[in-house]
Write a structure and sequence with these properties.
15 helices; alpha+beta
Length: 959
């Protein structure tokens, strides 16, 4: 987690006085020692003396800077690690909250910042900034707060504990994935070499395999999308046959890692004919929220699932991520999220306590503030002890029941060792405009006798939530009692209409004890199915979740923000399988609620596939009412309503195989025998209709119409009869184009397909080009100097390409040019020199503002693009290249069709943007071109120009 370099720094400066020995008594259970009081006083003195700009800076950043500037004596806090995580270059990763504008971004870049993520909607910029630039940034009027970057983790449970410092390098990962992809491609179609399909044991444990056969439902007609860390091995899984082609990835949001790939494999195992999509959740908290919305409103996902928790997600109010979940569920999407692996009270694995603030009467030195009494009516104990065994790299969060952005009750959080030394702290100001949130981190190596103290610096008593995420509260050796309470499930997983998913093993038991001496972990039923004796994983997070405020900050119970106020949400909702197999390296056995959530999402996809249009409330009713009750009778805090079974849910909803007939691209045959549809032509239009569904399409018919003025269609409708699953029917229509139709303005056809089935009708729109395409290709190149592509900056860099004298385009191709191709990352003779092409996303924008992604995150560690043509007619996609193909040359299909940019006139300023979305590599745009074919004008027929494959110093000529 976050580690601080402060202790090492001040030691090097010779400013540290020896910390109090661990063997010495640091404090009694009901009072701070003098040693502790002196250290907290030193920290509070900084808080008391802050000027306006400093009050907008994360307290740990502020103290780190003062220590480095020697404006605070390191000997005053000898064991302190600030948590600022300053890089060797003196930079820190921060979240800047405020009014996002081009002016702010420009100012940040001028301060030396590197932009990592930008969200206009949520007013947030993640940036890597010089530590010494933080005060000036915070001093801006458009900046509300500069915070240490809000971190996150997935809900994967490692079968073996992570080893500190052991991390695969970018280059090592690229080489591994490249080798796995090559092996998968080479093995295709070779008996005895190609691996058999790897199927999640959850498919069997949830009865999904037999349910698909029994009900004839496979996920057809639904789109299920995941958010996680990344999909590094997507191409490998596709080559192995574990995932289908055509996974819809939000451009630039492929992420880093492979948990997303493993989640998609699980979904595909259970719902094999559902469409799939993905976006990363790890660029920033605001980017995560943006991507939730993009998956629904841009990509059209019906079911969305994630396995991520950001540490700042409030337990008491729906923050920006939960608000995004609310937005998509209000629009009809089903949303599933991991309940978390933070433990539960029933199994004794919890590191969570919540309850009303109890004044201990113990002040903290000469400044304001009294400590919270965890013992309550049972006594007086101002410390919460952390288990020694589970004390390494634990983020600890404190929230209290004030609305977000409006807290005027100021609480602080301190982490102490057994000797009473402050190890970490968080003491931001809350004066009416800030969030009710503090966070500390335990040391990377853990510690003996670590304990937490909550101090109310000023204000009123509030309901508190203290969570050691993946840690555990345990009685200490020196007599401190651990206090825990249920309800560690927080954030968007606890959104009112989200499904929070707990985990139960499908097959083998989780292979290690969470702590020495723990009871054995439960095993699953595979090859059988889940039943009433199923047990949840001992690490799965418990509920319920008490919430005090609506998303907009309105109190749910005005005047009562205590243990008797707010609303209590029954979370988690349901339980699903973990401990399952995937083909993804590192996830061959996938444990954690990260694995459980996609199983539940896939079963929901089957429900929608067999019951198109079923309201979300009905899906929820079916999942809850058919869940097999496990653990305590009725709904419980660890498993929710129980474990879900696909056959029971499908039977409850009356699922049946549904046809899904839709029109394909028409074929046009002009009556005059010409090769093109011209103004005044009459033409035969052959419209294919394919049934991609699970059921037979009966009474199928097509109504063909055109909104283009003057175009006639005859007949208006035709019957296609019965179309079996996987089959295609065809029929001919006749269209007439008016003689006044402008060249290049397409004829638009709307094909409405009706059939007996709940997916009926389907509507498809097609554009038929009008006019004879000119064989003459005109070339337009970027004429400026080389432009550097900023590293790890999603905003990228943009160059203009001016087009004139063409009018409407019949064909577009785009090229990355170059005179001499080589793999030297500093080359000046290639079109784009870049040391890791797999970091890049290229986007072409037309004068009308329409965009098409040309390439995205393909090419792995290979260097340089040179003499590459992107054409809609190309056979191979650029996603098929590997580092071995570098420098990249040849002709490839773009990610999104360039033809979609030709709707208006081609004349005007086009732009090409290259964004490097992963850190560590650099390069420049040097030479790119747009190649445009217009239409043959009736009076002057153009002749083909000589076009060759050779390339000079000018733009690439498409063949």
């Amino acid at each position: 987690m976050l580690t601080a370099g402060t202790a090492a720094l001040v030691t090097a400066l010779g400013l540290v006085s020896p910390p109090v020995a661990a063997g010495m008594s640091g404090s009694s259970p009901d009072a701070f020692s003098e040693n502790t009081v002196r250290q907290i006083e030193a920290l509070q003195s900084i808080k008391k003396s802050q000027h306006t700009g400093e009050s907008k800076v994360d307290s740990r950043l502020l103290v780190e800077q003062k220590l480095r500037d020697r404006r605070m004596s390191a000997s005053a806090v000898p064991a302190l690690g600030s948590g600022a995580n300053v890089s060797a270059a003196g930079t820190v990763l921060v979240d800047i909250r405020g009014q996002v504008s081009e002016e702010l971004l420009k100012g940040l870049r001028e301060s030396g910042a590197g932009i990592r993520a930008v969200s206009q909607r949520y007013g947030s910029v993640r940036a890597e900034v010089p530590l010494n630039a933080v005060p000036a940034i915070a001093g801006r009027a458009d900046v509300k707060k500069v915070e240490t970057a809000n971190e996150a983790f997935t809900a994967r449970q490692l079968a073996e504990p992570a080893v500190a410092g052991k991390r695969e390098s970018k280059e090592e990962k690229a080489a591994r994935i490249g080798g796995e992809l090559k092996k998968a491609v080479d093995a295709k179609g070779q008996p005895g070499i190609a691996a058999g399909p790897v199927t999640s044991e959850g498919d069997r444990a949830h009865n999904a395999d037999t349910a698909r056969q029994q009900f004839g439902v496979t996920g057809v007609g639904t789109k299920i999308c995941a958010l996680s860390d990344g999909i590094d091995s997507l191409a490998t899984s596709q080559a192995r046959g574990e995932l289908p082609a055509g996974v819809d990835v939000i451009p630039g949001q492929e992420g880093d890692g492979d948990e997303g790939t493993a989640m998609l494999e699980i979904i595909h195992d259970l719902a094999p004919n559902a469409s799939l999509g993905f976006a990363s959740a790890f660029n920033s908290d605001a980017s995560f929220a943006d991507n939730i919305r993009k998956l629904r409103f841009d990509a059209g996902c019906d079911v969305i699932v994630d396995d991520v928790l950001y540490f700042k997600e409030s337990p008491f109010q729906d923050w920006i991520i939960a608000q995004a979940v609310n937005d998509v569920t209000a629009d009809g999407a089903l949303y599933f999220s991991s309940a978390g692996n933070e433990g539960n009270v029933t199994d004794g694995t919890s590191g969570h306590w919540e309850g009303d603030f109890v004044d201990s009467g113990k002040g903290v030195g000469k400044f304001a503030g009294t400590a919270h009494n965890f013992a309550g009516a049972a006594g007086n104990q101002i410390f919460e002890p952390i288990s020694d065994v589970s004390s390494a790299r634990v983020p600890v969060t404190l929230f209290w029941s004030d609305p977000l952005g409006a807290s005027n009750n100021d609480y602080d959080l301190y982490l102490l060792n057994a000797a009473g030394n402050v190890v970490d702290f968080s003491q931001d100001n809350q004066t009416g405009t800030q969030d009710a949130y503090e966070r500390v981190d335990t040391p990377a190596a853990g510690g003996i006798g670590l304990r937490l103290a909550i101090v109310k610096f000023s204000g009123e008593g509030r309901y508190l939530s203290l969570s050691a995420l993946r840690g555990r509260f345990s009685d200490s050796a020196d007599g401190l009692k651990a206090y825990t309470s249920p309800g560690v499930t927080v954030g968007h997983s606890a959104a009112r209409d989200a499904f929070s998913v707990a985990a139960a093993p499908a097959a083998k038991a989780f292979p290690r004890a969470l702590e020495p001496g723990d009871p054995a972990n439960p095993a699953g039923p595979f090859p059988g199915a889940f039943g009433a004796t199923t047990k949840v994983e001992r690490f799965t997070s418990d509920g319920p979740r008490r919430v005090f405020f609506q998303a907009d900050g309105t109190p749910i119970t005005p005047g009562n923000v205590s243990a008797t106020g707010g609303e209590v949400r029954a979370k988690p909702d349901i339980t699903a399988a973990d401990g399952v197999s995937t083909s993804v390296t590192g996830f061959t056995t996938f444990y954690g609620t990260s694995a459980a959530a996609p199983h539940a999402a896939a079963i929901a996809g089957l429900v929608l596939s067999g019951n198109p249009g079923l309201p979300p409330a009905d899906v929820r009713e079916a999942l809850i009412n058919t869940a097999v009750d496990i653990l305590a009778p009725g709904r419980d805090n660890s498993s929710g309503a129980g474990v879900i079974l696909a056959d029971k849910v499908l039977a409850y909803t009356g699922a049946s195989p549904q046809p899904l007939a839709s029109a394909g691209q028409p074929t046009v045959t002009p009556a005059d025998g010409g090769s093109a549809l011209d103004p005044g032509d009459t033409a035969k239009v052959t419209v294919p209709v394919t049934n991609r569904g699970d059921g037979t399409a009966t009474s199928t018919s097509v109504v063909l119409s055109s909104p283009t003025p003057g175009v006639t269609v005859a007949p208006r409708s035709k019957s296609y009869g019965t179309i079996s699953p996987g089959q295609t029917g065809v029929n001919d229509f006749t269209i007439t184009v008016p003689a006044t139709q402008e060249l290049g303005v397409p004829v638009v056809l709307n094909a409405r397909v009706t059939f007996a089935g709940s997916f009926s009708p389907t509507t498809s729109t097609f554009s038929l080009p009008v006019g004879t395409p000119s064989p003459v290709t005109r070339d337009f190149a970027y004429a400026g100097a080389a432009v550097a592509i900023p590293d790890s900056d999603p905003t990228g860099v943009t160059v203009p390409i001016t087009v004139s004298g063409v009018g409407r385009a019949s064909k577009l191709t785009f090229s990355v040019d170059g005179a001499t191709c080589n793999a030297d990352q500093t080359s000046t003779t290639v079109g784009i020199n870049h040391s890791y092409v797999g970091d890049l996303v290229g986007t072409l924008t037309s004068p009308s503002g329409a965009k098409a992604t040309v390439f995205q995150r393909s090419g792995s560690s290979g260097n340089n693009l040179c003499q590459v043509v992107f054409a809609d007619s190309a056979a191979a996609a650029f996603s098929s290249v590997s580092a071995a193909n570098a420098p990249f040359t040849g002709t490839y299909k773009p990610v999104q069709a360039l033809g979609g940019l030709a709707a208006g006139t081609a004349d005007g300023t086009w732009t090409f943007t290259a964004a490097d979305v992963v850190g560590g590599d650099t390069g420049s745009i040097r030479s790119v071109s747009l190649h445009v074919n217009g239409f043959v004008q009736p009076a002057v027929a153009e002749r083909p120009a000589g076009v060759g494959k050779s390339v000079g110093r000018g733009p690439v000529k498409p063949v």
